[in-house]
Amino acid sequence: MAIEKICGIETEYSIIHKGVADPNPILASSMLITSYVQETGPHFDNGIADSVVWDFQDESPANDARGFTPIGSLPPVVETHLVNAVLTNGARFYVDHAHPELSTPECPNALEVSRYDRSGELILREAMKSVKSLLPDDQEIVVYKDNSDGKGNSYGCHENYLMDRSTPFGDIIRHGIAHFITRQIFTGSGKIGSEVPGSDPDSIAYQITQRADFFEEEVGLETTLKRPIINTRDEPHSDAERYRRLHVICGDANMSEAATFLKVGSTCFILAMVEDGFIGEDFIFDHPVQAMKEISYDLTLSQPIQRTNGESITALEVQEYFCERAKEYSERGGLEYVGGEVGLKVLNKWEEILVGLKEDPSSLHSQIDWIAKKRLLDVFCDRHKLSYFDARARSLAVQYHDIRNDSSIFNKLGMVTINDAKSVSEGVTKPPVGTRAYFRGACLQKWPEQIVSANWDSVVFSLDETTIKRVPVLDPLKGTYADVADLIDQCNTPHELIHALDI
Questions:
Q1: Which residue in 64, 96, 146, 298 is the catalytic one?
Q2: Same-domain status, 79 and 214
Q3: Is 45 considered catalytic here?
Q4: Which of 7, 190, 245, 378 is most buried (most C-beta within 10 Å)?
């Protein structure tokens, strides 16, 4: 049976340390995050600012939803030695391998995810300002919200969705693959060239998505090598008997709020319908990994993809089917699992975008990243008589993802916004009110000096010099504003809070 789709996004930002002969991205990422924490974090009695660090106790990235891990699989390494901070909005800001990464707090719907994703950009923007003040005048650390360096390296934008543990994982695979490889037509961020190992990088002038070139398997545990369309990491960060967390690694990082909103919102619908057995038709493709690439290369959206039943279908037709089923699902009570009124907004946006893609893709230049970027490149290349492969065109394509105010081309394109500027700004420091992220963020705001660490499903308090207490919040739907705001406000100390919670 379907459950409410609590969701969130983890974004790895690319990083460049300008003015340094031999830059170290891990060091640069650490400096970036530390400077932000030092400037914006609570300042204690000794005048030193610090952050609440991440608690790694419940990390289990090697657990596989299939019940086994194939020989040779390499799950992500938990890097406990790198900078890892918890923010007052409930988010996590940390160094992941060689990138700064920001995970939004758990959100109750796609609209909130798109808001906190934008808030994350503001956090990174402030972090760049903070670290710049510490660097020599000829140096600068800059981050970009993209997924590929054009040299064969990719970094992720991962989504997470709360699901009912009892849902057969095979059903998630069957319908999830069909959705993830076809939703590219509205989630892709656009890319010049190809980065498939062994291929001619100039064989594809422009493609829809930045990530398709890097996927090698249909199903698997890994996230950096042999990337699978369906990731099997079984790390729920919640009550494992009731829930699973579907970790989605195949999406692009979107500059467009509309694209982020629809990416998350449509997936919430798909997963809720999977839980309720509502989708109906199976779209099983002969070669899903190759189909993922073919869809990305097809700017006409007309490439038929071969199915195992001998028929073929386009990505657009698959998405049209899913959208129609989602509308029927909403009429039968499904909206309660996808954000209620927000679910209706998702349906309206989904239908609007699919109609635009079918009738005139260029009409979506203010909503869909790959179309906006292509339009920008076309105007530039036509004006200067250049090909996409010219270094100046490639530089412009990268600059599309520059989130600095004074360098942002994206902000000058008149893109559609979903959230107002005030709510995005508030999301930098305030947590969502409808999930357990509220409890985490509110406690961090009120008692920063007495919190030892925190993670998604618990907060660890220091009650005195010798006593610490872990407060578990295993249900993402608990610990909301409605649940605990008055209680936190009434308690003067964590000890009073824990006593009131009867833990």
A1: 96
A2: yes
A3: no
A4: 7
